[in-house]
Amino acid sequence: MRKIKRKKRPMTLLEIMIVIFIIGIISSVIGYNMKGSLEKAKAFKTKEGIKKINEIFDLEVASGTLLQDVIDDPGAVLKSSGLVSNVKDLLRDGWGKDYAIRMSKSGRSVIIKSDNYDRYQSKQKKKSKNTLALNDDDEVEEDED
């Protein structure tokens, strides 16, 4: 019995180019999907940061801190609360911009806003309106009658 030795055939340049092309397509799809995920993560961080700051401010005002002091120096109020380890980071939204902190018109509460978060929310509303308009035109017209 003879053993037949097979020669190992090396990969051709075309095969290597096809593999590189496929890897490129996969990485571009992943990169495109990551962009949306990063925006969602920034929005989530901002939303949760606003909630946390509001809760701390409410606790501090309930314990005797003047509302005007909260508006004038929010960093000092957060630091004195003892509930925040990194005050500078908490006072920035997911995009790295400082929150706009002001008093409500009634003068009884604090309003915390982020321009970037507001823009993100308006984009999401536009997307959902466009999706509804493109996919459900007939159903919307029927509901209106």
Short description:
The chain is mainly α.
Overall description:
- The C terminus is likely disordered.
- This protein is 67% helix and 6% strand.
- The radius of gyration is 27 Å and the shape is elongated.
- A hairpin with a 6-residue loop joins strand 1 and strand 2.
- It has 6 helices and 2 strands, in the order ααααββαα.
- It has a two-stranded antiparallel sheet.
- It is mainly alpha-helical and 145 residues long.
List the helices and strands and how they pair.
Layout: H1 13-62, H2 67-72, H3 74-81, H4 87-90, E1 100-103, E2 110-113, H5 115-135, H6 137-144
Antiparallel strand pairs: 1-2
Helix content: 55-70%
Q: Please give the order of strands in the largest beta sheet.
A: 1-2
How many DSSP-defined strands? Answer: 2
Task: Count the DSSP helices.
Answer: 6
User: How far apart, in Å, are the first and last alpha carbons?
Assistant: 87 Å
> Which word captures the global form?
elongated
Mean pLDDT: 84
Order of helices and strands: HHHHEEHH
Low-confidence sequence ranges: 134-145
Our estimate of the beta-strand percent is 5-15%
- Report the sheet with the most strands, covering strand number, pairing sense and barrel closure: 2 strands, antiparallel
Broad structural category: mainly alpha
The value of Rg in angstroms is 27 Å
